[in-house]
């Protein structure tokens, strides 16, 4: 028999969660506004099925994501708690493995923050490409009025609901830095002001990953990427789709346009 002072096993923690979840009322969870509290967090966790996560997680429109990030950010759910519940409920597979990997990334950002402290809000490494460093978020971005449907849709959701799909965050961050030449710190501050899951470590370090000040290369995207991960929905209604789309080129062509000195 275990001593009462022993820590519960993973299976015991998951069983406790399952019992708590079993008593919650049924029904779908709405995306926005994000309901607060432990009860809402447990409902969200109960309703998340990670088995298809690896295939659908990057789809900005269909959204095969967990929507657990606000609860993780504010400590309503713990990383190990979420992992233990899911790995005891679902059989091993690529979707579950990918989701647990994403939890590990969140833990990694926290470890970097614990080591570097407030230094994460400044360049941790030299940029691997030439970056412009203009200060201040442009008015059209603040107003979600760039004319680019893929970006304006994401920005409106950010300002209205405090949420933005992770893949759309990458698009917006890359656009601000590499196309508009805005210092990543101002973009990170914009996100932090609005995101319900805004976390100092994950936010600043992710912007640095886009910039190449905490990665071996910058992240940028092209129109093919937007069409692929939105099912073509954004380009189909974008006034700049026929001409004027700044993303309509190959990666090789864009690299020359964006980073050639």
UniProtKB/TrEMBL annotation:
InterPro entries: Crypto/Photolyase_FAD-like_sf, Cryptochr/Photolyase_FAD-bd, Cryptochrome/DNA_photolyase_1
Free-text comment on the cofactor: Binds 1 FAD per subunit.
Annotated keywords: FAD, Flavoprotein, Lyase
Biological processes per GO annotation: circadian regulation of gene expression; entrainment of circadian clock by photoperiod
GO molecular function: deoxyribodipyrimidine photo-lyase activity; DNA binding; FAD binding
Cofactors (names): FAD
Domain of life of the native organism: Bacteria
A Gene Ontology term for the protein's cellular component: cytoplasm
PANTHER family linked to this entry: CRYPTOCHROME (PTHR11455), SI:CH1073-390K14.1 (PTHR11455:SF18)
Name of the protein described by the UniProt record: DNA photolyase
